[in-house]
Request: fold
Amino acid sequence: MNKKAQQEMVGFVLIVVLVMVGMMVFLVISLRDAPEERGSLQVGYVLDAIMKHTTECAVIYEPDYDNFEDLFKSCYKNDKCSNLGVSACDYLNKTLREVVGDMMDTEATVSSYQVNFFSKDDTGQQGILTFYEGNCTGVMSAAQRSIISGSESLIIQMKICGLTN
Amino acid sequence: MGIKHEQSLTTSKKGTSALAVTKGRPRAVRNLIPKHRKTWFPRKRYDESTNLKEGTCRKTWFPRGQMKIQQMAFMIVAVFFFFALVGLFFLNIQLKDIKGGSAQLQKEQAISSLKVIADMPELNYDSSETMTVDEDKIRVMSGNFSADYDLFWPVASIGIYKIYPAFNAVKKCPASNCNFYEIYDNGQTNVKTYSTYVSICKKVKELGSIYDKCEVGKLVVGVNINE
Reply:
């Protein structure tokens, strides 16, 4: 094999290697761009149903019970459930875990879920309540709802892994 | 210069025409080429077989050129196939993504259809609220109305479960501490079910005050599968 043929082979191999590297870069970028979390209509409905759920916590008087939306506000304002004698945040933490847990138990494909409750203002975010159950092995679907409490914006965010129909 | 070599060669030997038309390198010419030169540089030669005048030249068609063209052609074909394979690979990835998107859209469309059912006046609690069903209405609807609503519901079955507090066994309403309202079932078995979460609300009177009590529920709708 003469030298020129060797040079041509080296050139060809170089081109193939370059194309392969380009392909790998493209693949990595396209895989990275694939959304890890996607906004889900269904998770939004889960959040809506939770928000409307009437709790047993009455901050002012019975039977003016808070639903979860009001309870998030009460927790942010450090109110107390006057009928139960516990702080709204403690009650929220306990009850929200139970309700979300029972909801997710009816979903066979859900491997994990996460709920974040935080306040958001001009200075940034401040976490108030977060809990996470399970281990995510599939696609993460997410949704969030915003509640206005005075001048503050309270965000309730939910992430569910493996939610199907 | 090469032409001069050839011309001098033709005059130096007998039967010069044979030398001029012989393919490849003539031995006599090879002897004229300096030893350090490996290839025969002049590619133009005098051809007596043609009507070319003495001293004029024409390009000859060497097998080496053919080789080059063949090599290039193979290279182009190889590169074409290579890029075709790469294109197919990426096309496959893109199509997979499209299929996933299509399934997701189909699912969201089905869930949107559930919203339509939940917001029907027959089930809806408050017209200003979506995905909220009236427990009193669904209690009535879960009576023996299936046959009457056979043409009304655009689906095979509709049921609503109470999710919280959790239950171990399904207890059909109407009954005490029931957790399942069967609103409609046309009896078909070949159905695909879609579900979403709704709020089940009702008016409750407690300590002399009336308030709205809402619970988390799950609306399950069965759709006929056409095979």
Remarks:
- The radius of gyration of chain A is 25 Å.
